[in-house]
């Protein structure tokens, strides 16, 4: 039995390697963002996308409008996302302490911004914000697993935010397909996320 020439062997190995790369799952090719995980208390990479897309809400713990969304819309939106395989992620882009107070359902303006002392982007400041967000999640009955922190505005979501909150609709490939600036009804978000 004759052995394969070295050049042919190298070419065969290379073609197998390339063929294997083509069969990688979509999840590996999704955009990944390094953010601080509130549940894990550490940096990690996230894609923010479920099998049918994602919803990313940039917010700040101290913001009264974010608190209004958290109280009146996000718990139901998170449950809706789980049923429809659409990830919902809350990204705090403001490393400040304080917790906003939500206004009544019919008047978001009646809320109150929380005390907002700047915590900084050091590890100690980010850990302090983690503790604030743990209290925030408990007050507004939201799962910690949906919270991340982007204190240095590394994600495209932080860079594109003009108002708090801003809601980004992502397709299954992680591309932003629609943006809502400011308070938006859950029904509008859901209809845009499934269209």
Notes on the structure:
The protein has 195 residues and is α/β, with parallel strands linked by helices. The chain has one domain (27-193): Glutaredoxin, CATH 3.40.30. The protein has helices at residues 6-22, 26-29, 64-72, 74-84, 123-140, 156-160, 186-193; strands spanning 33-37, 42-46, 54-59, 87-92, 147-149, 166-170, 176-181. The longest helix is centred in the C-terminal third of the chain and has 18 residues, at 123-140.
Secondary structure blueprint with pairings:
Blueprint: H1 6-22, H2 26-29, E1 33-37, E2 42-46, E3 54-59, H3 64-72, H4 74-84, E4 87-92, H5 123-140, E5 147-149, H6 156-160, E6 166-170, E7 176-181, H7 186-193
Parallel strand pairs: 3-4, 4-5
Antiparallel strand pairs: 1-2, 1-5, 3-6, 6-7
Provide a quick synopsis of the model.
The protein is an alpha/beta fold and 195 residues long. The chain is 37% helix and 18% strand. The relative contact order is 0.19.
């Amino acid at each position: 039995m004759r052995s394969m020439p070295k050049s042919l062997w190298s070419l065969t190995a290379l073609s197998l390697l390339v063929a294997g790369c083509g069969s990688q799952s979509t999840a590996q090719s999704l955009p990944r963002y390094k953010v601080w995980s509130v549940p894990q208390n550490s940096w990690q990479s996230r894609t923010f996308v479920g099998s049918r897309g994602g919803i990313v809400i940039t917010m700040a713990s101290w913001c009264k409008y974010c608190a209004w969304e958290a109280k009146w819309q996000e718990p139901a939106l998170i449950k809706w996302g789980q049923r429809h395989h659409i990830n919902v992620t809350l990204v705090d882009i403001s490393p400040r302490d304080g917790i906003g107070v939500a206004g009544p359902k019919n008047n978001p303006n009646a809320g109150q911004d929380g005390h907002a002392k700047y915590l900084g982007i050091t590890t100690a400041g980010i850990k302090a914000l983690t503790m604030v967000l743990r209290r925030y999640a408990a007050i507004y009955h939201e799962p910690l697993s949906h919270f991340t922190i982007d204190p240095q505005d590394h994600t495209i979501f932080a860079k594109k935010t003009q108002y708090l909150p801003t809601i980004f609709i992502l397709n299954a490939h992680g591309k932003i397909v629609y943006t809502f600036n400011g308070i938006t009804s859950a029904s509008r978000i859901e209809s845009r996320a499934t269209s």
